[in-house]
Design goal:
single chain; alpha/beta; eight-stranded parallel β-barrel; five-stranded antiparallel β-sheet; 14 helices
């Protein structure tokens, strides 16, 4: 993504250690608060994290699709008192709380109970993306006695599943003007990442060439011109043997998609807005968008194949990319988790093999502007909701940029920002192992007990302070990513310099503005190939140390100051 210039300026101004200490204290407060919130969590004998219903006697241990039904397993240490000895299973939309939804099943109360009810897929009463809870009748009133739980295996009904195109981690944000001349193939690119703005593809029936999509009893319309352009682009990349990742953004500008903008985000001035999960119009439209895109780009409809979807960009950067007017971490994570659930269930129900990623930036324990949330705190809270409401196979999209962004040294960051422990202010490629180790913790594992897919979906290094630094940085970043088995993508940002970004010393392309290849082009071309030794030798010469040794022994160089390049 284009980085906001204001964030870069903030980096230059923040040269006081006192502010860093206050930020660290704020992080500690967040962590302690989260730990208290997780007081209902415990580890079982299998080292899996379980979350108790907070003060609620009944737990929904699973909600899964079986055939055309949803089957929920309910457990209780003791049966809660009630008027009639019954459990009532409610299906709530994401914007509903408590017993506001529909009763979908009634069963005899007990300590171990199975409840089953129709999935009603692709109907006005679809339960695919709803959340479920248990209530009892007490003194004539319905009382919630369990936490909410979502369906966790939407892939069980996928009708358009295609084998994934996993061939390697070497990726890039392409310059579409350079996609037809063989240069992506010359670079040996295996993955591309591109943005799709949801409000740009949504229209109504009055727009010429609109593509109708009937879903859940309603008809939605998509911009035929924009969709056809995406069809062509994706099929072209597929024909090159490249895997495609699309980032789902919400620009909030189209009059046809205002229902996709969260009420708390309306009236804001930001490149990206939180998705609307606060009412029926927004939630239903989002369901249709997810189902339409996953079906169309499943590889089964002749329109191309997208294997990976990223929900939003750097969503912890509230005032930059996922705007709401609320400064509450829990509020923002809660609505993001709800939007993520909808996208996940709708897409996986179309193509079982797609991966759905969240997205956070490198600001692990320090903010570059006060409107953001700390990446670590956001990740922790997101994972809390995922476990509490039904663990699913979500992936992590992470952007381990240098700090500051225009710092040209991937292998030698400022000591004040790049630490060796969990309290590090930033996580860059130098100390990425901190994130990797963090994601190896039991509470972050996937439902199958595996470390989640981690995508370096955006990373780049500037040539504004010399081509040699960019060459060595790209080599260091790629080779570090390739050395980590849990990293499934290294997406270089970008193919061609951007004039606006260069105003902030961010000349991150492999081409300059005149279309000339920079020396970094050949470095990236050789990486991951039989000629990789040439790239390693060049990087080692620039760095002044054997790059294989530096990476294999996890040698982390740092320097004094805050990273301002003279």
């Amino acid at each position: 993504m284009r980085k906001d210039e204001r964030e870069n300026n903030c980096e230059m101004k923040r040269n006081s250690m006192a502010r860093g200490k206050r930020a660290a204290a704020a992080v500690l407060t967040v962590v302690i608060t989260l730990a208290l919130t997780l007081g209902g969590a415990f580890f079982g004998k299998d080292n899996t994290l379980y979350v108790k219903a907070d003060g609620r006697p009944v737990s929904i241990s699973s909600c899964t699709i079986s055939g055309s039904n949803v089957v929920c397993q309910l457990t209780a240490g003791s049966v809660p008192s009630s008027d009639d000895g019954k459990y009532y299973i409610y299906a709530d939309e994401v914007y509903q709380d408590g017993t506001a939804g529909k009763i979908v099943a009634t069963v005899e109360a007990g300590t171990s109970v199975t409840a089953s009810f129709p999935l009603n897929y692709n109907s006005a009463d679809s339960n695919l993306s709803r959340k479920f809870l248990v209530a009892v009748k007490r003194s004539g009133q319905m009382m919630q006695v369990s936490n909410e739980h979502y369906i966790t295996n939407p892939e069980a009904i996928a009708a358009h599943t295609s084998p994934r195109r996993d061939t390697g981690i070497k990726g890039i944000l392409p310059d579409l003007t350079r996609c037809s001349n063989g240069e992506l193939q010359d670079l040996g690119i295996q993955q591309i990442v591109y943005n799709i703005d949801m409000d740009e593809i949504c229209v109504d029936a009055s727009v010429g060439g609109a593509i109708p999509f009937n879903y859940n009893g309603q008809t939605y319309y998509f911009n035929g011109g924009r969709i056809n352009s995406f069809d062509s682009m994706i099929k072209t990349f597929n024909s090159y043997g490249m895997q495609v990742t699309l980032v789902l953004l919400n620009g909030g500008q189209s009059p046809y998609a205002q229902d996709l903008v969260h009420p708390s985000a309306r009236g804001g001035d930001c490149p990206g807005y939180a998705l609307n999960v606060a009412d029926a119009a927004g939630a239903n439209h989002l369901k249709a968008v997810g189902a339409f895109l996953a079906q169309r780009y499943s590889g089964q409809t002749g329109c191309g194949q997208v294997d990976n979807w990223i929900v939003g960009n750097e969503v912890n950067a509230r005032t930059s990319w996922w705007y709401t007017n609320s400064t509450s971490l829990d509020f923002n994570v809660n609505i993001y988790a709800k939007a993520f659930r909808i996208i996940y269930n709708e897409m996986k129900s179309q193509n079982a093999n797609v991966r759905i990623y969240n997205s956070i930036d490198q600001e692990w324990n320090r903010k570059s502007n006060p409107g953001s949330f700390l990446a670590k705190a956001y990740l922790d809270q997101f994972n809390y909701y995922m476990i509490r409401e039904g663990n699913i196979d979500w992936g992590l999209s992470f952007h381990p940029y240098n700090s500051p962004l225009y710092d040209p040294y991937a292998w030698n960051g400022p000591a004040v920002w790049v630490g060796s422990g969990i309290t590090t202010p930033y996580i860059t490629m130098q100390n990425l192992d901190i994130l990797i180790n963090y994601m190896h913790q039991s509470q972050f594992l996937s439902p199958s007990g595996q470390v989640r897919s981690i995508s370096i979906a955006e990373i780049g290094y500037t040539s504004s302070f010399g081509n040699e630094k960019q060459e060595a940085s790209i080599a260091y970043g790629y080779l570090k990513a390739a050395s980590l088995p849990d990293v499934d993508a290294f997406m270089l940002f970008r193919q061609t310099d951007d004039a606006h970004e260069m105003e902030s010393h961010l000349a991150m392309g492999l081409y300059d503005l005149n279309g000339n290849k920079k020396p970094a082009y050949n470095i990236y071309k050789n990486l991951g190939t039989a000629n990789e030794g040439v790239a390693k030798a060049r990087a080692s010469e620039i760095i002044g140390m054997d790059i294989d040794q530096m990476i294999s022994q996890n040698i982390v160089w740092t320097r004094g100051g805050t990273g301002v390049v003279q």
